Amino acid sequence: MLIRLANIVGLIVLSSASCTTTQPVSSAEAACTVATARVTAQRHLPTSHAAFCDDIPETDGRDGYYVTALRAHCPEELCGSTNMGWFAVQKATGEVFEVDDVSDWKVGRRVAEGS
Q: Which of the residues in the chain have pLDDT under 50?
């Protein structure tokens, strides 16, 4: 619950910043906040559409990135996958990228906000 609250506060802070502003991220929770804001903006969805992040341990992911799957809320009693996609957040810059290949966490195209 505290992590979700921290994510909400982070989203409020991010939404007040410039769309092109990026900054380093230093935790999986911060990466979740950044990925949620960027992906939902790109897809023209409210940030509340994303329920949580399914983080990969840093030791299993890609060097220099936090790797996570964004999960959406399930509006039905029974749901199939709620995976919105796999994303890599670059630690040094906070840039968000799609993950092209989950077998080796190959980083794909940059997620551009609101495009």
A: 1-2, 4-9, 11-19
Question: What pTM, to 2 d.p., does this model score?
Answer: 0.79
Cβ atoms of 65 and 88 within 8 Å: the answer is yes
DSSP 33: H
What's the pLDDT at 115?
A: 60
- Contact call for residues 84 and 52 (beta carbons, < 8 A): no
Residue in the block written with tokens 């506060």: 9
Which sequence spans correspond to the domains of the chain? 2-110
Identify residue 25 by its one-letter amino acid code. V
DSSP SS3 for 80: coil
Q: Which class is domain 2-110? A: alpha beta
Alpha-carbon distance of 80 to 101, in angstroms, equals: 21
Encode pLDDT of 47-74 as tens digits: 999 999 999 999 999 999 999 999 999 8
Query: What is d(CA 61, CA 47) in angstroms, rounded to the nearest whole number?
Result: 25
